[in-house]
Amino acid sequence: MIIDEQTELRRLRWEARWLHRVLGVSPSGYWVWRTRTPSAHARDDTRLLARIREIHAASGGTFGAPRVHATLKAEGIRCGHTHVARLMRQAGLRGAGGSQVL
């Protein structure tokens, strides 16, 4: 659905007023937040998630967070296993569940 610029601007102004009224956020603070650049941490997460997606896809979707983390570690990329698990969870990436032989 294509929204013209006027409608989008109206929607954003209403959103800013609503946030000001309900949450006490100043309109200028809202606009500063909307236009600021992503933090260094957010940019690093974006790059790491791109690599995680590549590893996950290369494994045929079978690698979960522990194996993705081990692969990243083998490549010399330093990150925690919980960090990898969080990014995978947020992106909706899951490893294939193993079958247990009884």
Folded structure, characterized:
- The chain has helices spanning 5-23, 27-35, 40-58, 65-74, 81-91.
- The chain is mainly α.
- The protein has 2 domains: 5-35; 40-91.
- Helix 4 (65-74) crosses helix 5 (81-91).
- The relative contact order is 0.10.
- The model has no long low-confidence stretch (mean pLDDT 86).
Largest sheet: none
The number of distinct β-strands equals 0
The total of helices stands at 5
Helix content: 55-70%
Global structural class: mainly alpha
Which term fits the overall shape?
elongated
- Point out poorly predicted stretches: none
Quick overview of this protein structure:
The chain has helices at about 5-25, 25-35, 40-60, 65-75, 80-90. The chain has about 100 residues and is an all-alpha fold. α3 packs across α5 and α4 (about 65-75) packs across α5 (about 80-90).
Which helices and strands appear, and what pairs or packs with what?
Elements: H1 5-23, H2 27-35, H3 40-58, H4 65-74, H5 81-91
Keywords:
single chain; 102 residues; mainly alpha
